[in-house]
Design goal:
The chain is of the alpha+beta class and 200 residues long. It has 10 helices and 4 strands.
Length: 200
C-alpha cells in the first residue's frame, strides 16, 4: 500500500500565513499594480452565488492558500482576483511569499518542475486538499503566443532609452487594457469550474 505524502501545510501552518492586507502592506514593489487589479476586478452576483453554493457542499472550499511574489505580473494581476473571490464567498485566504516558503512551493510545482506563481490551493474546512490552480487561466496561456512580439521587445538588448521607454509603455498599456482585464474574469470562471468538478 502506497502511503500518501503528508503536506507541510498543517492547519497551524495555514493560520500563520498573512492576510491579503498584511501581504500588500509588506511588499516592496508594485503596490499600485495590486491596487489597480483589485479595483478592476468584480465578482458578479452569479459567480458569488456559485462560490457560496460550492462552499456549502460537504467537501466544499473553506480555505485558500496563495503563494506569490510582488515582482511577478501574474501575481499582481491574479492575487487581487483571488482576494475578491474570497471576499465574495467568505473563504479564508492566507498568503505566503514563495521564496520564504519553498517547502510549500515544492508541493505545487508546475509540471512537477517549475515554481510558477501565483499558486492558489483550496482546502476544505478540515484542511483536506481539494485542488490547486497555477499562474494564469488557460485562455491567457493560449493568448501568450500572440503577445510574443511585445514580450520580445521588452527583453531586447541594445535598445536606446527611447526604445526602452516605448516598449515599457506598450506593456503598461496592455496591462490597463481589455485582454489583461479579461484574464481576471477568466481566472474567476476557470477556478469556479474546477471547484465545481472537484467537489461534486
Amino acid at each position: 500500500m502506497v502511503q500518501e505524502k503528508v503536506s507541510v501545510v498543517t492547519p497551524e501552518r495555514f493560520s500563520q500565513g498573512m492576510t491579503y492586507e498584511q501581504y500588500v502592506g509588506s511588499i516592496e514593489r508594485n503596490e499600485k499594480r495590486f491596487e489597480e487589479n483589485y479595483a478592476g476586478t468584480e465578482v458578479s452576483a452569479e459567480d458569488a452565488a456559485r462560490l457560496k453554493e460550492l462552499m456549502a457542499r460537504p467537501r466544499g472550499p473553506a480555505k485558500l492558500l496563495v503563494l506569490g511574489e510582488d515582482w511577478c505580473p501574474d501575481v499582481f494581476r491574479g492575487m487581487p482576483v483571488l482576494k475578491r473571490m474570497a471576499e465574495a464567498s467568505g473563504i479564508e485566504m492566507r498568503v505566503f511569499p514563495r521564496d520564504q516558503h519553498k517547502d510549500i512551493m515544492a508541493e505545487f510545482l508546475n509540471s512537477g518542475e517549475f515554481e510558477s506563481i501565483p499558486v492558489a490551493v483550496f482546502y476544505t474546512r478540515d484542511q483536506d486538499y481539494i485542488l490547486h490552480w497555477i499562474e494564469r487561466p488557460a485562455k491567457a496561456q493560449a493568448q501568450m503566443k500572440d503577445l510574443a512580439p511585445m514580450y520580445a521587445r521588452l527583453r531586447k538588448a541594445d535598445m536606446t532609452d527611447e526604445e526602452k521607454a516605448a516598449a515599457r509603455q506598450e506593456y503598461i498599456d496592455f496591462q490597463n487594457g481589455p485582454i489583461w482585464g479579461g484574464w481576471r474574469q477568466d481566472t474567476i470562471k476557470e477556478i469556479i469550474e474546477q471547484l465545481d468538478e472537484k467537489t461534486r
